[in-house]
């Protein structure tokens, strides 16, 4: 009987310790969340469009276009150049 | 040298296990086959029950030298890892690497549900003492209510190694039965109105908080309960691997290959401890009954505390998430979700239940730490003021 009483007392004591430990953890989490709030990652700006081609670029594009069409043996209107900037 | 064919056959026959098999070993072989059946065909925790069952089978084949007590045998070396608290903490490393504390950090008050569910541990402790176990044995049996296999094995190996087999089998068997044990209790203890509560969406948590939490938790828990350092330390280290973002390889290894390898060794070691001398006893039947009591009381404790939080939060917390405080990650959280959706199909409680679910892992580890402080070997936490106080209280209780 005394052992059962001891186990009941141990149970109350242990539950108390568990609630205290986890209660401290709750406090720590609340402090952390308060001082280190979530910040949404900055939205990445859309990639800037390529600047409009200058008249000199247009000459280069026309020359490359013609050379490619001749080399590939195709009509110039079948070839579409996307980018001639250096990588 | 004379050679007699008849003598040779007789000699070979007498060197087989067939003549050495005892009735108790036959019964244990039958039990191991039942475990294999449950694992393979009924899919009851197969990752654990299968190697446990096969370990039990090998340990009970006569002359095989595969029982955990056979010095020099293979499983004796595996058992070394259980006896010397190596394997359960390594499992916890993997569990930590798999755990997302986000839902818990978003709603930290759910940690209390993980504490409340430990009531199952202590009611079982009292029940075990009433059935004739001493306090060390009763503590090892009670921790079954924590629904945490590695913690049960860790504590049993320290406080009652002779009961390791039945405790591990009871813990894992009832964990696999969580979807059957919990729902009737949850329905019985809650009203339809309570079950229908829809909880607010969880707020996001900063990555820095997720990184700091395992470090602070380790500091607090291990400083207060040094005996649980191997479990909590490894659990939180695994989680730090996951959250810190600079140890991807360690995180990957912990949550896959390491936990799988250690699970095989741990389960075989546990299975090899199930010999007829240790398992076929009245104590085993008592442990099976007490294990069920532990799970029922843990579920009830969590749900009742959930009801209390429902009242104090003015109906914002669904008491069903309390049952997830028993640990058994993530099955108990899934049960909360399932029972909630029986009342309202548009109610999603899973993420809310994950908070108390992982809190249950911490809660059961803390409960084990308290038992180790009170009844563990003398070297655990010696010199620590809180532990000494607890030991003094216990001594006075014993007198």
Short summary of the structure?
Chain A contains two helices and no strands. Chain A has 87 residues and is mainly alpha-helical.
Supply database-style keywords:
heterodimer, A: mainly alpha, 2 helices, 60% helix, 0% strand, rod-shaped, B: 399 residues, mainly alpha
What percent of the residues of chain A sit in helical stretches (DSSP H or I)? 55-70%
| Series of secondary-structure elements of chain B, N-terminal to C-terminal | HHHHHHHHHHHHHHHHHHHHH
Treating each run of at least 4 consecutive H or I residues as one helix, how many helices of chain A? 2
- Count of β-strands of chain B: 0
Strand content of chain B: under 5%
Unreliable spans of chain B: 380-387
**Cα distance, first to last residue of chain B?**
71 Å
Q: Quick check: average pLDDT of chain A?
A: 82
Describe it for me?
The complex is a heterodimer of chains A (87) and B (399). With 87 residues, chain A is an all-alpha fold. Chain A folds into 2 domains: 1-38; 50-87, no CATH class. Chain A is 60% helix and 0% strand. Chain A has helices at 2-35, 55-72. Chain A is rod-shaped and about 105 Å long. The model of chain A has no long low-confidence stretch (mean pLDDT 82). By secondary structure, chain B is mainly alpha-helical. Chain B has one domain (74-398). Chain B is built from 21 helices and no strands. Chain B has helices spanning 5-14, 23-40, 46-59, 74-83, 87-98, 102-106, 111-116, 119-130, 135-142, 149-159, 164-176, 178-189, 192-195, 207-224, 229-244, 248-272, 276-279, 282-312, 331-343, 350-375, 385-398. Chain B is globular and about 90 Å long. The model of chain B is unreliable at 380-387 (pLDDT under 50). Classes of the chains: A mainly alpha (87), B mainly alpha (399). At the A-B interface, helix 1 of A face helix 7, helix 8, helix 14, helix 20 and helix 21 of B.
List the helices and strands and how they pair.
The complex is a heterodimer of chains A (about 90) and B (about 400).
Chain A: H1 2-35, H2 55-72
Chain B: H1 5-14, H2 23-40, H3 46-59, H4 74-83, H5 87-98, H6 102-106, H7 111-116, H8 119-130, H9 135-142, H10 149-159, H11 164-176, H12 178-189, H13 192-195, H14 207-224, H15 229-244, H16 248-272, H17 276-279, H18 282-312, H19 331-343, H20 350-375, H21 385-398
Helix pairs in contact in B: 2-3, 3-16, 4-16, 5-10, 5-15, 5-16, 8-9, 8-18, 9-10, 10-11, 10-20, 11-18, 12-18, 12-19, 14-15, 15-16, 19-20
């Amino acid at each position: 009987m005394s052992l059962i009483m001891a186990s009941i007392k141990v149970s109350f004591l242990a539950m108390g310790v568990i609630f205290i430990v986890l209660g401290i953890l709750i406090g720590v989490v609340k402090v952390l969340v308060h001082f280190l709030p979530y910040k949404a990652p900055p939205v990445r700006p859309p990639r800037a469009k390529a600047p409009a081609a200058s008249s000199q670029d247009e000459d280069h594009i026309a020359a490359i276009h013609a050379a490619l069409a001749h080399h590939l043996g195709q009509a110039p209107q079948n070839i579409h150049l996307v980018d001639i900037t250096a990588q | 040298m004379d050679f007699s064919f008849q003598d040779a056959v007789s000699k070979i026959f007498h060197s087989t296990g067939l003549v050495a098999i005892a009735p108790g070993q036959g019964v244990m072989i039958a039990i191991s086959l039942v475990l294999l059946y449950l694992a393979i065909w009924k899919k009851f925790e197969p990752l654990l029950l299968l190697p446990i069952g096969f370990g039990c089978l090998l340990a009970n084949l006569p002359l095989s030298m595969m029982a955990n007590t056979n010095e020099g045998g293979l499983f004796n070396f595996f058992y070394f890892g259980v006896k010397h608290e190596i394997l359960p903490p390594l499992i916890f490393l993997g569990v930590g690497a798999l755990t997302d504390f986000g839902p818990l950090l978003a709603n930290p008050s759910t940690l209390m549900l993980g504490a409340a569910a430990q009531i199952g541990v202590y009611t079982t402790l009292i029940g075990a003492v009433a059935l004739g176990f001493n306090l060390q044995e009763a503590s090892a049996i009670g921790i079954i209510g924590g629904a945490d296999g590695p913690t049960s094995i860790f504590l049993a190996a320290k406080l009652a190694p002779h009961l390791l087999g039945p405790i591990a089998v009871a813990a894992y068997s009832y964990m696999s039965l969580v979807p059957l044990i919990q729902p009737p209790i949850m329905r019985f203890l809650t009203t339809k109105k309570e079950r229908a509560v829809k909880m607010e969406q969880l707020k996001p948590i900063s990555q820095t908080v997720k990184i700091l939490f395992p470090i602070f938790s380790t500091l607090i828990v291990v400083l207060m309960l040094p005996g649980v350092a191997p479990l909590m330390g490894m659990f939180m280290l695994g989680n730090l691997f996951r959250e810190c973002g600079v140890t991807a390889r360690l995180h990957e290894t912990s949550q896959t290959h390491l936990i799988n390898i250690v699970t095989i060794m741990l389960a075989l070691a546990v299975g090899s401890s199930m010999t007829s001398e240790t398992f076929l006893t009245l104590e085993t039947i008592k442990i099976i009954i007490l294990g069920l009591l532990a799970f029922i009381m843990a579920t009830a404790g969590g749900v009742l505390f959930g009801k209390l939080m429902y009242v104090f939060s003015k109906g914002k917390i669904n008491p069903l998430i309390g049952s997830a405080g028993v640990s058994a990650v993530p099955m108990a959280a899934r049960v909360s979700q399932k029972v909630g959706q029986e009342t309202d199909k548009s109610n999603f409680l899973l993420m809310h239940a994950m908070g108390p679910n992982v809190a249950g892992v911490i809660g059961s580890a803390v409960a084990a730490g308290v038992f180790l402080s009170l009844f563990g070997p003398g070297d655990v936490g010696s010199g620590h003021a809180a532990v000494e106080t607890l030991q003094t209280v216990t001594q006075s209780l014993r007198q």
